[in-house]
Amino acid sequence: MSRQLKDDNGYSIPQVFELDGATVISVSDTSQQSAAFASTTTAIRIAVTNHHVHFSVNTDPVATTSSSIIPKDWVETIAVRPGHKLAVIKGNGAGQPILSITELV
């Protein structure tokens, strides 16, 4: 589902968000959950360094190595719902990923 805004001519309007808190996680081989997103959070910015990770977003998510992937040294913005959480797990191979989750309102 896309929430991309469009102008009267159908052109995409870039969205600008206010930052509302960040969490940094040293990702392991076991699925880890974030805290629930705030009631005002509509999107999150995920940044990962050092190694790729897999993630899932839901009310009680579990990430597996079959979940959506974020490559190393990548930043992704995704729409979320208030109260949902992000689960993350390290991808296969060497490296120690660090993940930053910034809530956007």
Short description:
The chain has strands at residues 5-6, 12-13, 19-26, 32-33, 43-49, 53-58, 68-70, 74-79, 85-90, 98-104. It is mainly beta and 105 residues long.
Layout of SSEs?
Blueprint: E1 5-6, E2 12-13, E3 19-26, E4 32-33, E5 43-49, E6 53-58, E7 68-70, E8 74-79, E9 85-90, E10 98-104
Antiparallel strand pairs: 1-2, 3-10, 4-9, 5-8, 5-10, 6-7, 6-9
What does this protein look like?
The protein is mostly beta strands. It has one domain (18-104): Jelly Rolls, CATH 2.60.120. The chain has no helices and ten strands. It has strands at 5-6, 12-13, 19-26, 32-33, 43-49, 53-58, 68-70, 74-79, 85-90, 98-104. Strands 3-10-5-8 form a four-stranded antiparallel β-sheet, with no helix packed on it. Strands 4-9-6-7 form a four-stranded antiparallel β-sheet, with no helix packed on it. The chain is globular. The two termini are 18 Å apart. The mean pLDDT is 91.
Enter the CATH topology name: Jelly Rolls
Number of domains: 1
Structural class estimated from helices and strands: mainly beta
The residue ranges in which pLDDT falls below 50 over 5 or more consecutive positions are none
Task: State the order of secondary-structure elements, H for helix, E for strand.
Answer: EEEEEEEEEE
Major sheet characteristics: 4 strands, antiparallel
Arithmetic mean of pLDDT? 91
Give the number of helices.
Answer: 0
CATH homologous superfamily classification: Jelly Rolls
Quote the distance from N terminus to C terminus: 18 Å
Mind telling me the C-alpha Rg?
Answer: 14 Å
Extended strand count: 10
Shape call:
globular
CATH-scheme architecture: Sandwich
Q: What oligomeric arrangement do these chains adopt?
A: single chain
